[in-house]
Amino acid sequence: IWSQDHKVIAIQYAITAIAIGLVALGMSVLMRLQLGFPHFFSLIVPNNYYQFITMHGMIMVIYLLTALFLGGFGNYLIPLMCGARDMVFPYMNMVSYWVYLVAVLVLVAAFFVPGGPTGAGWTLYPPQAVLPGTPGASWGIVLMLLSLAIFIVAFTMGGLNYVTTVLQARCRGMTLLRMPLSVWGIFMATVLGLLAFPALLVSAVMMTLDSVLGTSFFLPAVVSMGQPPTHSGGSPLLFQHLFWFFGHPEVYIVALPAFGIVSDLLSTHARRHIFGYRMMVWAILAIGCLSFVVWAHHMYVSGMNPYFGFFFATTTLIIAVPTAIKVYNWVLTLWRGD
Prior knowledge:
The protein is an all-alpha fold and about 350 residues long. Helices cover about 65% and strands about 0% of the residues. It has a single domain, classed as Up-down Bundle (Cytochrome C Oxidase, Chain A), CATH 1.20.210.10.
């Protein structure tokens, strides 16, 4: 189990991600059953429902999809498709998996502490996430934030490994514009993660300080359960900006590896080179760059300046163009394919 082989580590990532994903799937099934048959599933009280929604969303987005596509497919495919013997830093690759496993275990531990896991919603918006009265407002939210911080450490170790391997360990003749699109998708997703996850890490640390030490980075002057907070003056909008600066690139951290894998699968089974290979590469790069200038379209109702909203609406429309190019090229690859 302490193997430094990239294939073994990829399988470990995949098994762990799928296992925690099945937990989230179970919570989803229970929520649907409660909605469909509320009289038969009265054990799921409103507090539990909020907690299930929060844990289901966070597990699926972070601990399943991100870990499976980058930790699983990334570890397995990058050395094979680049012609490298292994990752450049195999020991760090192994450590990244075990740190990821610790993050998963800390997250699961939230189910067993007093109050249970946080019920603040998967976006963890303050002030709800840290105010008394919210399910899991003490230990639950702290363990969630601690788990996210540990996950980001694991991702950073793995991500630096992927980027270095792609840039420095390709075999002779494997130029960047000869790499399979699967590698391009995983590479760009990793770069996005290395740039976006620090925003989530900073917001997690700041919210932990709000919850544990009584700071007020995100806590405004509100009344909770009939009592004003002991500390206030923070800005919930600051958290929203930090979270969505990470949150929208996260969409493409998950999507770009899938786009690359689909491209190679279609090319293989159509028995044709992918139509417009260079265009596909530039589309991946364009999607990655544009993903950092669309985050505020999640915040139109936050009271932002209309001109600010117009800018983000425009960039949101523009990012659809390289995505559409990829779909058109897939269709043209299949056209008269064998």
